[in-house]
Design goal:
mainly alpha, transmembrane, membrane, HGSNAT_cat, Heparan-alpha-glucosaminide N-acetyltransferase catalytic domain-containing protein, two-stranded antiparallel sheet, 18 helices, about 350 residues
Length: about 350
């Protein structure tokens, strides 16, 4: 299946699936007991699905390449918009519950070694770095990179360099006020930033590289996905050979990967794109399942904002790290349905010009 309305079915499919995985993974991370997350088959599978965040980032890079908004100022505007939404989400997820709902749950705060309703706690959660912050910063970098060159190999070399250097730069910081937080966003090795620019922006840059590859072959998806499969296998072999030399260094911390971990994850996610392309061919273009996945893909920003808000606020009803696997599965269904219903309501309000997010990431 090729391009339709400037969209690529397999890219939409993988992005939509990865958004759905986010709801599943976030529900498990917030509500599943540690034993449920680490010792049950369902928990281990769901936690592994969290690796799909890299697929989400690659799809973001590919989609950006085909976006009509390519001028310096439109990219900058989009970048600051994503940063605004990211910090607004932090406010809604954490600050509103902290001061309006009577404080964040004790067990949740204890996991971060924080105390309720303190300035330190408020600043920590307001400044928490996640995918939206990563996306915003990456777009800022792309805006300036494009002023230098639009060559695909520049993005490839930049992505590869970030993967190689990330572990060595992990934890780098300065005590200069203001710059310290910027260092956290770029190089954090703690859980105040879940997706630091090093290494995670590399997946977005590699996505841009792949998107430019596709453009150069006149959007021939058959050739593109065939090459993608071969490239992915080479990356998996290279990454695995590095990981086997020192697992802890290369893949011991998923959120702060070494070069081997980043390379093997890139290879696996690229292979997933090839698999997605094969799967999409099996579906009727008008099938309900495919339409739902495409719907998720077209509403990534609002879906991301809504699901995190509902899941975090749900701690006041269902607790934190307190449920076993079958209860978590029930909540996954509940939060998926609630997220979709809320997003439908949001789209209705958007059509009335009452509220608006820009989609997609």
């Amino acid at each position: 299946m090729g391009l339709t309305n400037n969209r690529i079915a397999a890219i939409d499919f993988t992005r939509g699936i990865s958004v759905f995985f986010l709801i599943i993974v976030h529900t498990m991370l917030i509500y599943g007991t540690l034993r449920t997350q680490t010792e049950t088959t369902i928990g281990q599978i769901i936690i592994w699905l969290g690796r799909g965040a890299a697929m989400y980032l690659i799809a973001m890079g590919i989609s950006f390449t085909f976006s009509r908004r390519q001028s310096f100022y439109t990219i900058i505007k989009r970048a600051f918009y994503l940063l605004f939404i990211g910090y607004s989400l932090n406010f809604v997820k954490f600050i509103i519950p902290e001061f309006i709902f009577g404080g964040l749950p004790y067990r949740f705060l204890n996991a971060y070694h924080l105390k309720t309703q303190s300035l330190e706690t408020s600043l920590f959660f307001l400044g928490l770095g996640d995918i939206l912050q990563l996306a915003g910063i990456s777009l800022l970098l792309i805006a300036f990179i494009n002023q230098i060159s639009n060559n695909k190999w520049l993005y490839f070399l930049l992505g590869l360099s970030i993967m190689i250097l990330s572990k060595e730069l992990s934890g780098f910081k300065t005590n200069i006020i203001g710059l310290e937080y910027i260092c956290h966003l770029f190089f954090s090795n703690q859980y105040n930033v879940y997706f630091p620019v090093f290494p995670w922006s590399a997946f977005i840059f590699m996505g841009v590289f792949l998107g430019k590859q596709l453009k150069e072959i006149n959007n021939d998806t058959q050739i593109f996905f065939k090459n993608l499969a071969l490239q992915s296998l080479g990356l998996i072999v290279l990454g695995l050979s590095l990981v086997l030399t020192n697992y802890k260094y290369h893949f011991g911390d998923y959120y702060h990967l070494g070069p081997g971990g980043s390379i093997i994850l890139l290879g696996i996610m690229m292979l997933c794109f090839w698999i997605a392309n094969q799967l999409v061919k099996l579906f009727n273009p008008n099938s309900p399942f495919l339409n739902i996945i495409i719907y998720l893909s077209k509403n990534t920003t609002s879906i991301y904002f809504i699901q995190w808000t509902l899941i975090n606020w749900g701690m006041y009803v269902f607790g934190f790290w307190s449920l076993h696997q079958w209860s978590v599965l029930a909540l996954i269904v509940l939060f998926t349905v609630l997220t979709l219903i809320t997003n439908i309501l949001y789209r209705k309000l958007k059509s009335l010009r009452i509220i608006s997010f820009e989609n997609n990431l």
